[in-house]
Amino acid sequence: MKEIRTPATTVERLPLYYRCLQKLSEQQVEVISSKDLGNMLGIPSTQVRKDLSYYGEFGRRGVGYEVSVLLKNLEKILGLDNDWEIVLIGAGNLGQALVNYGNFRNLGLEINYALDVDQGKIGNHLGDVKIHSVSELDDLVQEKDIRIAIVAVPADSAQQIANKLVANGVEAIWNFAPTRLEVPEEIEVRNEDLSIGLISLTYHLSE
Ligand SMILES: NC(=O)c1ccc[n+]([C@@H]2O[C@H](COP(=O)([O-])OP(=O)(O)OC[C@H]3O[C@@H](n4cnc5c(N)ncnc54)[C@H](O)[C@@H]3O)[C@@H](O)[C@H]2O)c1
């Protein structure tokens, strides 16, 4: 049987549906139509139905989606029903902001460990998270079976850190350093480059 690949744009929208459904659930809304869900997110109802149809038959024609059922299913699809252990490398300005960002918790996600090379930072706490020496990376990643890492070190250290992470079993990297990481094909890398967002605005104003 030919496997149907879910478009990347659909996958990108799933967290939006999830967050929206969380809000609806908090507001005790039990059922939502694709039209209303789409209106809340600025997405056409046809797109909402198509996106969700890749994962199953969640809605009922003329009725809509049961919020709690769709929320539970999306939680599973997005892997948010797992207790992921996440390590941050580089507890500088950005790293600190990420650890202190409370909204990850609303998704059931948490940065559990922070590593840095700076002796002046090692031993300090970012909230509940103690900053450990980066020399502990190998042992920590292996012992805690960490599969997700956040790289927030300067660009010239990022590749070396990525190599160590991958060698110790990390499978997914959220990379904030403005550099392309060379990793094996099976490693999932998500690059976050804030300057690209800002440049897209200056580009449009300059047209
Ligand atoms: N600050 C931002 O808003 C921002 C935005 C986008 C991208 N970035 C990128 O994210 C990265 C971090 O930015 P920042 O502003 O937090 O810088 P920063 O200088 O404040 O922090 C970097 C931290 O990494 C640590 N570090 C350096 N080498 C290391 C190594 N080998 N192992 C472990 N820790 C190491 C430093 O001691 C420092 O604490 C940079 O690559 C930067 O370009 C930053």
Brief overview, please?
This protein has helices at 8-26, 34-41, 45-53, 67-77, 93-100, 103-106, 137-143, 155-167, 194-206; strands spanning 31-32, 59-60, 64-66, 86-89, 113-116, 125-126, 129-133, 148-151, 172-175, 188-191. With 207 residues, it is α/β, with parallel strands linked by helices. The strands form two sheets. The chain has a seven-stranded mixed sheet.
Distance between the termini: 47 Å
Q: H/E order of the elements?
A: HEHHEEHEHHEEEHEHEEH
Classified in CATH, the superfamily of the largest domain is: NAD(P)-binding Rossmann-like Domain
CATH topology of the largest domain: Rossmann fold
Characterization of this structure:
The protein is about 45% helix and about 15% strand. It is of the alpha/beta class. Strands 6-7-5-4-8-9-10 form a seven-stranded mixed β-sheet. Strand 8 (about 150), helix 8 (about 155-165) and strand 9 (about 170-175) form a beta-alpha-beta unit. The model has no long low-confidence stretch (mean pLDDT about 95). The structure holds nicotinamide-adenine-dinucleotide (NAD). Nicotinamide-adenine-dinucleotide binds near residues 115, 118, 121 and 194. One of its GO terms (biological process) is response to redox state.
Topology:
Elements: H1 8-26, E1 31-32, H2 34-41, H3 45-53, E2 59-60, E3 64-66, H4 67-77, E4 86-89, H5 93-100, H6 103-106, E5 113-116, E6 125-126, E7 129-133, H7 137-143, E8 148-151, H8 155-167, E9 172-175, E10 188-191, H9 194-206
Helix pairs in contact: 1-4, 2-3
Bound molecules: nicotinamide-adenine-dinucleotide.
Nicotinamide-adenine-dinucleotide (NAD) binds at residues 89-95, 115-118, 121, 134, 152-155, 157, 161, 176-178, 194.
